[in-house]
From TrEMBL:
It comes from Streptomyces coeruleorubidus. It holds the Pfam family Amidase. One of its GO terms (molecular function) is amidase activity. Belongs to the amidase family. NCBIfam families: PRK06061.1. Its EC number is 3.5.1.4. Keywords: Hydrolase. The keyword Hydrolase applies. Residues 26-445 form the Amidase domain. PANTHER family: GLUTAMYL-TRNA(GLN) AMIDOTRANSFERASE SUBUNIT A, MITOCHONDRIAL, TRANSAMIDASE. The keyword Ion transport does not apply. It comes from the Bacteria. It is an enzyme of class 3 (hydrolase). This is Amidase.
């Protein structure tokens, strides 16, 4: 049996468990796809060809012995901000980085579930921007249009899944960095509750705003990878109660009260929802209403939430820069953000952290009237490659806020959000919408996302294979 690129995570795991295919054969095919697409998509920073084949052979021995694990022998990818033993963690930066000694906790849990880590995917420098480009690795391109970015900062993971190179991948989300590339590559992207998937060896990544999440073509696959990666290191500061995301798939959520939130949260520079994106999101709201939910326009009481985001984000950058082995090679915008972070890392940062409980109370009150928020994931479709690469720091911030003003408040709150595909622009560029909930609401969000998927069948739409992959396959 040969599984094609359309085979998802769960389907691949079933085929392996049934003995229909070997992990070695799957990994060989995966590595061939990655190599064929690297020149056009450039999704991977590191491809672990030799190590992955050895891991696949070990998985085949376990499968032959009747061992049962959720992802035994399944090839997956992780973002290059996650530690994989024996590989460097450059996090989008230039320079030769030493290999790390141990897996990060999320990677350790994927391995415990039996997954084969085929490589580490590209990300922009320290995950700061909604594009995946830089002098360290070039430009990662969107499989739906290689002239456009797949988004960021988990753009490599999104591109790898959207192109069918791997069935699912881990990313991380500090201001939308899973949800934005998921929106711009027609994927499901789950940003879970803070602490759901460990960020260890950093108990709090970027002062607690960054979490690890999953990207896949279907809700079931994204939930399966989330369950496999979930769990905590003994020293993690955030340890939410366990949830079973996979069990929520296909479960009827009942009739819900859904707030359609189209107004961007307050930002210091203008942000406007483009009409074409608005239309796609409203169409999704209409579909939810047709499914029996009560949908009405209402915006969460965000207030001045942005004042609490900036100190945490920039202090996190300052911490990374202080550890960087090659500071002279860092982007000038990174150094500027670090300078601001050092200025804000005292009283402003402490005030920002204290404000979180106030925000939880105020915005949590909104969920006494509504069960779920539906909002645009971005205000615009993906920009062209290079459009933001050479801008100044201020101009980059303006462009980011204009394109992506919707995702970051849920990072301040630490609550779950799920991007779902919302369709395409007239130019064929994907856009998405996010389902947002209060603390530990992943099961409910997964239920609603799966309900939409059953109606819209978004996973059946595929980008054309890259030219190099088509010629190789031929």
């Amino acid at each position: 049996m040969t599984l094609d690129r359309a085979a998802g995570l769960a389907e691949t795991a079933r085929a392996l468990a049934a003995g229909d295919v070997t992990s070695r054969a799957l990994v060989e095919r995966t590595l061939a796809r990655i190599e064929a697409a690297q020149g056009s998509i450039n999704a991977f920073r590191i491809v672990r060809a030799e190590a992955a084949l050895a891991e696949a052979e070990a998985a085949d021995r376990e499968l032959a012995a009747g061992v049962s694990k959720p992802l035994l022998g399944v090839p997956v990818a992780v973002k290059d901000d996650m530690d994989v033993a024996g590989e460097p963690t450059a996090f989008g930066c230039c320079g030769e980085f030493p290999p790390v000694a141990e897996d990060g906790e999320a990677v350790r849990r994927l391995r415990a579930a039996g997954a084969v880590i085929v490589g580490k995917t590209n990300t922009c420098e320290f995950g700061q921007w909604p594009f995946t480009e830089g002098p360290a690795f070039g430009a990662t391109r969107n499989p739906w249009s290689t002239a456009h970015t797949p988004g960021g900062s988990s753009g490599g993971s999104a591109a790898a899944v959207a192109a069918g190179l791997v069935p699912a991948a881990l990313g991380s989300d500090g201001a939308g960095s899973v949800r934005i590339p998921a929106a711009w590559t027609h994927l499901v992207g789950i940003k879970p509750q803070r602490g759901r998937v460990s960020t260890w060896p950093r108990g709090e990544s970027f002062q607690g705003i960054t979490v690890n999440g999953t990207l896949a073509r279907t809700v079931a696959d994204a939930a399966l990878l989330l369950d496999a990666a979930s769990g905590n290191h003994a020293q993690d500061p955030h340890r939410p109660p366990a949830v079973d995301a996979s069990a929520a798939v296909g479960r009827d959520p009942g009739r819900l009260r859904i707030a359609l939130a189209l107004k961007p949260p307050f930002t210091a520079v203008p942000a406007r929802l483009l009409p074409e994106v608005r239309t796609r999101v409203v169409e999704l709201a209409d579909r939810l209403a047709a499914l029996g939910h009560t949908v009405e326009e209402a915006d969460p009481p965000y207030g001045q939430i942005g004042l609490t985001f900036v100190p945490r984000a920039t202090a996190g950058i300052a911490e990374r820069v202080a550890e960087a082995p090659f500071p002279a090679l860092l982007d000038r915008r990174t150094l500027g953000a670090a300078r601001l972070g050092r200025l804000l890392s005292g009283a402003p940062l402490r005030a920002a952290r204290r404000a979180e409980s106030v925000l939880h109370h105020r915005i949590g009150g909104f969920f006494t009237s509504y069960d779920v928020v539906l909002a645009p994931t971005t205000a615009a479709p993906p920009p062209r490659i290079g459009a933001l690469l050479e801008l100044s720091g201020f101009a980059t911030d303006r462009a980011m806020i204009a394109a992506c003003p919707y995702a970051w408040p849920w990072n301040v709150l630490g609550w779950p959000g799920v991007n779902v595909p919302a369709g395409f622009t007239a130019d064929g560029l994907p856009v998405g919408a996010q389902l947002l909930g209060p603390a530990n609401s992943e099961p409910l969000l997964v239920q609603v996302a799966a309900q939409l998927e059953a109606e819209l069948r978004w996973h059946e739409k595929w980008p054309a294979p890259p030219v190099t992959e088509r010629s190789t396959a031929a």
